[in-house]
Amino acid sequence: MIGVVVDIDDTLISTDLSMQGVWREVLGCDVPLDAVQTLGIEQIFEEFASPKQKTQVSELSRRFWDISLCIEEVGVKLFGLHEPIPFSAEILQTWVNHCKLIYLTGRPENVRDLTFNELKKFGFPTSNTQLVMFS
User: Fold this and answer.
1) pLDDT band at 135 (very low <50, low <70, confident <90, very high)
2) CA distances for 33 relative to 15, 36, 39, 115, angstroms
């Protein structure tokens, strides 16, 4: 049987709204969605951080990752803002009968259950699949 490896974030599931929420937590202001989608971390700090925050980039970057990786509890709440990419679940439902699906993600092991439940909630196949997480 052929195996197909599919990335989760921003391939199957849009994380744009949760990333916007992470920036709201880190910077205390709304970063426009188009900026979240097109700018890198350094560019967002440069454009949206206050002068004081620009002197704290190292600490704020660490907080960004702690929230994004659900080390901070608020990150788990922001998970609820994820949305499926249109038609991605339907496509994988047709593939699962012809190949082994392997979900690959940079998400850490501490969110395995959240990730698996999210895949199920959005209608992605979960039986006879493998979920490979960052360790």
Assistant:
1) confident
2) 11, 5, 10, 23
User: Of 3, 17, 4, which is closest to residue 84 (Cα–Cα)?
Assistant: 17
CB 83 within 8 A of CB 116: no
Write the pLDDT tens digit of every residue in 57-107: 999 999 999 999 999 999 999 999 999 999 999 999 999 989 999 999 999
Residue 82: other Cβ atoms inside 10 A: 21
pLDDT beyond 80 at 1: no
- On whether the CB atoms of residues 65 and 59 are closer than 8 A, the answer is no
Q: How is domain 2-14+82-134 classified at the CATH fold level?
A: Rossmann fold (3.40.50)
Burial (CB < 10 A; 0-12, 13-18, 19+), residue 61, is middle
